[in-house]
Task: inverse folding
């Protein structure tokens, strides 16, 4: 009989106890901070415990292994994205207004430093040949959950035009890429672009104006 996966076997479900929730939160935040400062592979167990102010035994108690902890970070990010989508407002009268609102909503998730940590976890675990089948299944579940939330946002933005082949995906990729590019410009200290206080808002408005004529035409055709 095959032994159960170590990460899955020892992993505890989230707790409702306030003190335990605070400990889990501290460990997850420490993991994110470690990844952002040192990178995925150098965010060691020792570094995470030092930042969180706990012992490795505490992390094992709540998460099991480092792999399970990284999965918990991804799942926490997915829950935060759920909250962003739930409270996001896309109700503009014109396509340009709705695209601008969609950009703002996407920026709340994809435009944050934490997303850079989520991306490192997902990429490294997906490409690691030692990643277990159970972990890959969880990665896929997180991805499917985010995809469904994104479809909700895109439908609110494009309406009937969502049915146009490849349009929803293309719009999302363009907007997410734009948000990530802005994040990277603000993150890379060696970049020669000097940030301006209103640069981000100005560029988002400009992108919305550039996309609006084409999208408005597609929406009109979809409504006829």
Result:
């Amino acid at each position: 009989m095959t032994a159960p996966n170590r990460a899955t076997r020892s992993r505890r479900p989230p707790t409702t106890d306030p003190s335990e929730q605070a400990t889990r939160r501290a460990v997850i935040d420490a993991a994110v901070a470690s990844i952002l400062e040192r990178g995925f592979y150098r965010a060691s167990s020792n570094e995470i415990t030092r930042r969180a102010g706990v012992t490795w035994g505490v992390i094992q108690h709540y998460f099991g292994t480092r792999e399970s902890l990284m999965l918990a970070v991804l799942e926490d990010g997915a829950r935060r994205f759920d909250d962003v989508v739930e409270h996001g407002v896309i109700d503009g009268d014109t396509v340009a207004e709705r695209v601008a609102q969609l950009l703002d909503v996407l920026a709340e998730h994809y435009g944050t430093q934490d997303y850079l940590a989520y991306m490192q976890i997902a990429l490294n675990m997906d490409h690691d040949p030692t990643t277990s089948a159970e972990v890959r299944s969880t990665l896929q579940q997180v991805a499917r959950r985010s995809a469904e939330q994104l479809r909700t946002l895109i439908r609110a933005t494009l309406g009937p035009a969502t049915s146009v082949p490849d349009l929803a995906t293309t719009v999302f990729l363009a907007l997410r890429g734009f948000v990530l590019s802005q994040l990277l410009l603000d993150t890379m200290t060696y970049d020669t672009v000097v940030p301006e206080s209103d640069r981000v808002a100005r560029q988002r408005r400009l992108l919305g104006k550039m996309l609006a004529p084409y999208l408005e035409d597609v929406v009109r055709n979809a409504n006829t």
